[in-house]
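Entry for the shared binder. Reason: the reviewer on the internal report wants the predicted structure included alongside the sequence.
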Amino acid sequence: QVQLVQSGGGLVQPGGSLRLSCAATGSLFAINLNGWYRQVPGKQRELVAGFTRGGGTNYSESVRGRFTISRDNAKLTMYLHMNDRKPEDTSVYSCHAARGPLSAYWGQGTQVPVSS
């Protein structure tokens, strides 16, 4: 059993910063923490930031230059650093992991409002 436990959410003002964490627990052999997604009502889930097969990173156009994805493989923890947050960044953010080509795992989701 694999669980992804998210933490670090909270209310921030426009222009503020926040870091989300995603820690993998359980059976962790070959687990691959590989991305962050977000979804708001009425819109499709979108990839915010992820790691590519080549070890690089990929960001949605709306967050590129403001958000940074990172991970600590020793701690089996992935992070999303969000800077200069805008009201339109308000969403539920979920981390994602995979094991092999067919197994996928999701965090519980973290609501991150941006409001003054």
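Summary line for the report: The chain has a mean pLDDT of 94.
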